[in-house]
Design goal:
The complex is a heterodimer of chains A (about 500) and B (about 300). By secondary structure, chain A is mostly helical. Chain A has a domain of about 220 residues. In chain B, about 40% of the residues are buried. Classes of the chains: A mainly alpha (about 500), B mainly alpha (about 300). Chains A and B meet through helix 1, helix 4, helix 5, helix 6 and helix 8 of A and helix 4, helix 5, helix 6, helix 8 and helix 12 of B.
């Protein structure tokens, strides 16, 4: 086998093996360097994989040399490669930013282990996406979750511990539910391979066991996804985690959970069973709308800007869920597209806030007074990110909402289009609150002087900001991939065979 | 069932920990009854054994009595009730236990049973499935344990205090215990090694062996004092050992890659594929054992090294 054929497994095991190496090295700088190299290797693999599957083909990789369904299979199609690209690109961007920020926020003797945990979280997320085996999803879910709990608890605020514990309890319940769901499916089909499950399930679909498995999987993934009303762990976790952890998790973790939902519901159970036989689409639609409205409303009343963005994430998840609930190819396209675009927005915004924390030590709204004039580049990044969040052209936020509204109107469901519009207005209000404080209020004379963030932070932030605009104009890659991935999932495109 | 209810009602946490231990042991016997020897073994070693010690040592840091919760138990009770009902609903249609026609026994399993001894070449098919057919899952599980240990070390770290100086014990000088434990420890360690290397043939493997090996050290620590145990196994080496265990497992996979086969394909390790399988399983089980041992001991040290909050 040539090197290129190993890409599906290399993308996961490079960060996975780099983690124990970080622990062995136990030097902060070296650990950062190892993490950076590992993340960029994964990014390289992701780009190479995406270019291989763009034509709709599927890459299959037999781990341990055992053919599926006896062994474990890695299976990468267009949707998977697209999500792999999101996750690894965000990891690379965040790690570029990380060095100064982590030295500032984490005790020196723990930095190497911190990077090890970061790499494990990354490897876990990539593993969930790459695998074609239902139980393997659970194993890598545990890796990424445990690592995320540890990362969140490293926040300087004491409340980070509580937030991490809350997330641990909710996340463990979610993981257990997913495991029970997979167990029920195994009981009825005798297989764990996703492809095999999809073939064998229709014969036994009309049983209580499969229906119960479906329900357990929905709730379990919903918890991980922070789908309204299962989102209660998310705001505190994102608000009190270290800056780079907030940025990384906000940009990737919920996207991967959404991917798992798409994979299980549409890929394994099938479009007919999930969206037509079960009342799944209606439940998702109600929850999505409630998520958009409540998340945006609560965000307006937040004093802590990171917490505000966290509630905004709950609303953004609502948009993605709504996209799936529309149950058409156009709807799923909008959901997948928003995964990509939302990662860009939240990545840019949370990293910019990380720069603010680095200089100011706080992200409370009142402390930001006049910051627009003292940290012009950082706050300008917040402005563009905020515009993207609202959905102003030519940012990616506009593209997401455009496709969502088109999908909604295809059905003539104009009240849903109204919900999207209201969500944008609410986003305008909470983004405006930040900008008003930062630009229109003078910095109090008693406040200590602040200067612009170092260049090593500004470059990754602005790379993401530029990406926000670039992919708002040149939509070929994001929209093209999302459309084809959605068509493959919904079965409206000819399926490519395994290579 | 009775034990579970009792442990919810009780407010004496010491008794709850004991009940948990009993509960795990009952579960282990239940697994035994279902002919799942390896699972029973793990449950007994981890659930009834080490978990009890770890919970007790964290109990030492807090208090024995649980606070009366302020919130109403109605909502959680409702959630639990619905979950339980869903579980029962799900099993209504499920194949009967032990039904030979059930899908679980018809699809994937026959190859494991019929071809396993030939392809992988070991009598214990549980080990064959765990370490070879689904070896990548086991690699993942090893990383899960490593991650858990890393999380504890990130949060607590292993501290030094007057109690961890050599020669001090928490329970004082107990002559009878010392003599008994001195006899027991070599047997425990020897048994752990047997479980480690005999996993191909009988129940056992790296997970159980690592736990039992760590138990020996924990016992030594309890009777001869934290300081003495730390002289035998310095804490600063533990997280490195754990990392090494993961690297051994992953390293086998990398060798397969370099040999031009898929990740964790053990057949490259030797000219004879079956012999290669054998060697591969032995090596990865060693990696598992080392990681599990060092993580459990590290977690124990992390708790035992903290002075009690009064």
């Amino acid at each position: 086998m040539s090197f290129l054929e190993h890409l599906p497994v290399l993308i996961v095991i490079v960060p996975l093996m780099a983690a124990p190496i970080c622990v062995l090295l136990d030097r902060p700088r070296l650990a950062w360097l190892v993490a950076l190299i590992a993340a960029f290797s994964s990014l390289f693999c992701a780009i190479a994989l995406l270019s291989q599957v763009l034509d709709g083909s599927v890459i299959s990789y037999e781990l341990g040399g055992w053919a599926a369904p006896w062994g474990i299979e890695y299976r990468i199609d267009l949707l998977g490669a697209f999500v792999l690209l999101i996750v690894s690109a965000m990891a690379a961007a965040v790690l570029d930013f990380a060095k100064a920020s982590v030295e500032h926020e984490i005790p020196t003797d723990r930095i190497a282990r911190f990077y090890a945990a970061f790499l494990l979280a990354l490897a876990g997320l990539l593993g969930i996406v790459a695998t074609g085996d239902a139980f393997n999803v659970f194993v890598f879910l545990e890796i990424s979750s445990l690592a995320s709990y540890a990362l969140i608890s490293m926040g300087r605020d004491r409340r980070a511990l509580n937030a991490a514990f809350q997330y641990l309890v909710m996340g463990t319940i979610g993981a257990t539910f997913i495991l029970i769901g997979i167990g029920f499916l195994y009981m009825m089909t005798g297989t764990l391979n996703m492809q095999d499950l999809a073939e064998r399930l229709p014969a036994v679909a009309d049983t209580n066991t499969v229906r119960a498995g479906f329900a357990f999987l929905t709730v379990g993934i919903g918890l991980k996804l922070a789908m309204f009303p299962l989102h209660l762990w998310l705001p505190n976790a994102y608000a009190y985690a270290p800056s780079i952890v907030s940025a990384f998790l906000a940009a990737t973790a919920t996207k991967v959970a959404l991917y798992v939902m798409l994979r299980f519901m549409l890929g394994i159970f099938g479009v007919d069973f999930s969206l037509h036989e079960m009342p799944f689409a209606w439940i998702l639609m109600v929850l999505g709308v409630l998520g958009i409205l409540s998340g945006s409303l609560v965000a307006i009343y937040q004093d802590n800007v990171k917490r505000m963005l966290a509630y905004s994430s709950v609303a953004q998840i609502g948009y993605m869920v709504l996209g799936i609930a529309i149950a058409t190819t156009a709807g799923v396209t909008a959901a997948v597209l928003h995964m990509f675009n939302h990662a860009l927005m939240k990545g840019a915004l949370f990293l910019a806030l990380g720069a603010v924390v680095y200089r100011l030590g706080s992200v409370r709204l009142n402390d930001l007074s006049g910051l627009g004039w003292h940290m012009p580049w950082t706050m300008a990044a917040v402005v563009v990110g905020g515009l993207s969040l609202i959905g102003v052209p030519p940012t990616v936020g506009f593209i997401s909402k455009w496709y969502l509204v088109i999908a909604v109107l295809e059905h003539g469901w104009w009240p849903l289009a109204l919900v999207v519009l209201i969500g944008s207005v609410l986003a305008l209000i909470y983004v405006w609150r930040v900008l008003e404080v930062a630009y229109l209020r003078p910095r109090p004379a008693s406040a200590p002087p602040v200067s612009e963030a170092p260049l090593s932070m500004l470059i990754p932030v602005w790379l993401l900001v530029i990406a926000n605009i670039y992919f708002g104009i040149a939509t070929h890659l994001s929209v093209g991939s999302a459309e084809r991935a959605a068509a493959l999932l919904m079965g409206t495109a000819p399926m490519g065979g395994a290579q | 069932m009775l034990i579970a209810i009792a442990s919810i009602k009780l407010r004496d946490l010491f008794a709850v920990v004991m009940l948990f231990g009993i509960y795990s042991f009952m579960t282990a016997t239940l697994f035994m009854d279902l002919d799942a020897v390896d699972v029973a073994f793990t449950e007994a070693a981890v659930g009834a054994g080490v978990t009890t010690v770890l919970m007790l040592s964290s109990l030492r840091l807090t208090t024995r009595w649980e606070k009366i919760p302020r919130h109403s138990p109605l909502l959680p009770l409702l959630v639990v009730g619905i979950t339980g009902a869903a579980l029962v609903y799900g099993t209504l249609d499920a194949p009967m236990l032990g039904d030979a026609q059930a899908p679980v026994h018809q699809h994937v399993a026959p190859r494991y049973i019929e071809q396993g001894p030939v392809e992988v070449g070991m009598p214990n098919m549980v080990t064959a499935v765990l370490a070879s057919y689904r070896g990548y899952d086991t690699f993942g599980e090893t990383v899960v344990i490593f991650t858990a240990g890393l999380a504890v070390l990130l949060l607590l770290g292993i501290q030094e205090n007057p109690d961890t100086k050599p020669g001090r014990t928490a329970i004082g000088d107990q002559l009878v215990l010392r003599v008994l434990v001195k006899i027991l420890i070599p047997l425990i360690l020897l048994y752990a090694l047997y479980v480690q290397f005999h996993g191909d043939y009988g129940a056992g493997g790296g997970f159980q062996a690592g736990v039992i090996f760590a138990t020996g050290f924990v016992l030594y620590d309890l009777v001869f004092g934290d300081g003495n145990a730390r002289l035998v196994m310095p804490p600063r080496w533990l997280h490195r050992l754990a990392a090494l265990g993961v690297l051994i497992y992953g390293g086998v996979g990398v060798i397969s890659l370099l040999g031009g086969k898929a990740f964790l394909d053990y057949s490259v390790l030797s000219h004879d594929p079956v012999h290669g399988q054998h060697l591969g399983v032995l090596l990865v089980e060693l990696g598992v054992g080392i990681t599990v041992f060092s993580i459990i001991l590290a977690i124990f040290f992390a708790f035992s090294g903290r002075s009690r909050i009064r």
